[in-house]
Amino acid sequence: MSANLADRVPLVLSASAVVKVRIDNQAVRVHAHNRADQWFPLKRLSELRCYGEVALGPDVLPHCLRRGIGVHWFEAAGQWLGWAVPASAKVDPDIEHLLLEFLGLPDWQTRLQYFIAAQERHLMRGFLNQSRLHANDMRPDAVRAQALAAIQMSANLGQVFIMQLRHVMLARVAIAWAAAGLPAAFTTKLPKRMAPTELLANLTDWKLFSVVWQVRARIDRICRDPVDRLAFIERHLPDTDRLVADWMRNFCHWLAQQSHE
Question: Which of 19, 80, 169, 175 is the most buried if burial means most Cβ atoms within 10 Å?
């Protein structure tokens, strides 16, 4: 029997330490430098996070996908590159119908851009109300820079740590997004500036900022080690499945309105 999702944990693999990864008797076997091999049961894993050029055996990805385990790839410095997710979720026929109508509109890209900008501004205002930060420049990029500076100072967090935390959050949301049932035909039509990874990054930033702001005093007081800090904040991250479900609900409601305008 598989473990409950709440009991599963991510397996972090770094190319600087890991020599080879393969499947061995329903477990991920990790061979590392100057260390005995380790076995991690598939049923206990929520996802794999590969930093750098981790040597995955040819059987690792298929086994993970069959067991509902997503695999993420990052640059060694922490930048998220992309992911592979299980194809277990089916496309919602209602969403597909709405999208087909929407893609037939001559100005669908402009409409979608306005919708996404409105969603980001809504999340941004929520963070500003929570943090009580005063922003003279209300452009999202300017407020984001101000929020990052305030968070780094108040929680004593370095820029590299914040970047790593942002990519962890983005990777989690990407899994939920992929499972939300959007047709691939739609996402492949999006221009580069509106690629799913870019859109998700802009939206998830504000949720992440809100979480870190709430626990900023406890982070510096309780967690001195960077690994402990990352684990502490990860425990407080929002339910990404529910987060994406809310976004999808708003998106579908908005899509339905477009065909009547």
Answer: 169
Query: pTM of whole model > 0.70?
Result: no
> Using CA atoms, how far apart are residues 253 and 78, in angstroms rounded to an integer?
35
Q: Confirm if 45 and 77 have CB atoms less than 8 A apart.
A: no
Contact yes or no for 58/96 (Cβ under 8 A): no
Question: 167 has which bridge partners?
Answer: none
| Contact (Cβ atoms closer than 8 angstroms) between residue 239 and residue 173 | no
For the chain, the distance separating the N- and C-terminal CA atoms, rounded to the nearest angstrom, is 50
Q: Which stretches of the chain are DSSP H helices?
A: 60-66, 93-103, 108-131, 140-155, 159-178, 184-187, 196-214, 216-222, 226-236, 240-258
- Look up the CATH superfamily of 5-84: CRISPR-associated endonuclease Cas1, N-terminal domain (3.100.10.20)
Dump pLDDT digits (tens) for 65-107.
888 788 888 887 777 777 777 765 445 566 777 777 888 888 8
CA dihedral 247→249→253→255, nearest 10 degrees, is 60
Dump pLDDT digits (tens) for 156-185.
777 777 777 777 777 767 666 665 556 555
CA 179 to chain centre: 12
> Shortest CA distance to 258 belongs to which of 117, 136, 100, 120?
100
